[in-house]
Fold this protein.
Amino acid sequence: MAAAAVAAVPGTLGTLQAGRARLVAACCARLRPGSRLPGSLMGPRVAPAIWARGWAPAVEGSAPRRGYSSEVKTEDELRVRYLEEENRGIVVLGINRAYAKNSFSKNLIKMLSKAVDALKSDKKVRTIIVRSEVPGIFCAGADLKERVKMNPSEVGPFVSKIRAVINEIANLPVPTIAAIDGLALGGGLELALACDIRVAASSAKMGLVETKLAIIPGGGGTQRLPRAIGMSLAKELIFSARVLDGQEAKAVGLISHVLEQNQEGDAAYRKALDLAREFLPQGPVAMRVAKLAINQGMEVDLVTGLAIEEACYAQTIPTKDRLEGLLAFKEKRSPRYKGE
């Protein structure tokens, strides 16, 4: 039933049904140009989505290049690496502001926005890892030295920009993994919460500590932390500004994996890379619509969620990848998916 049709149903039920239909239609609109809803949810054709592109990162090898000098150029504060060979399809976003503990400056937020804008429409990207290029630090949140120089009228708009960029990362169509090898406080933890999966070293420290500064989390923390670990515990952590180590974070469900830190200081990144490699062989279209079905379905009731799943499943049926998967199964070989 399309949104226009159910709008005529009287009472609260009609309102709910109309809302469900709009949610499912919006879900399909994010899948691909020209999508249609399946079965009784059939509606009008969805116009193609147009993504802005204004930035293209250079392709680099898989070996990380670290730099810790206080003289790092602003263009090096975010390093975007497209991995090659057996890791082709994995992109690493490396934050590199050692002199400021990887805190969010105006420049870094601008660079993150441009990078995400380019990645979200790149069909060759299969998984994105967010990490730090600085030992012992993931991201310390907002750059307070820069913040203290702002007029009160500037603070709100800047926090809105941080929130918008973190939302863009949360809405990336491919799996995202936060590799937390060090301190992740305030906005740094909010950045990690926007990723689909979080892994951390046991020595890492994580917390939403904004109440210590007489403010509250402003990059989605009050919304994503309760969804990750439950409302009561999230309130406790935010009210107390408590900082957890990797083991404690794993115990409360904040992260999926905890590793003992290695000599190189990149145990979480290596685990994230292992996970990304596990994702690579799967069908690219299936991965995207699976993420969309889960994300959208978790925000609605079960009936609407099942309708979203139906809509998402329908998008995989006409793909060449689905036929390739069946053929590979029949021929007892590994499938060669192309994202088509």
User: Anything to note?
Assistant: The domain at 284-331 is CATH 1.10.12.10 (Lyase 2-enoyl-coa Hydratase; Chain  A, domain 2). The first strand starts at residue 78 and ends at 82. The chain has two domains: 78-280, 284-331. The two ends are 29 Å apart (CA to CA).
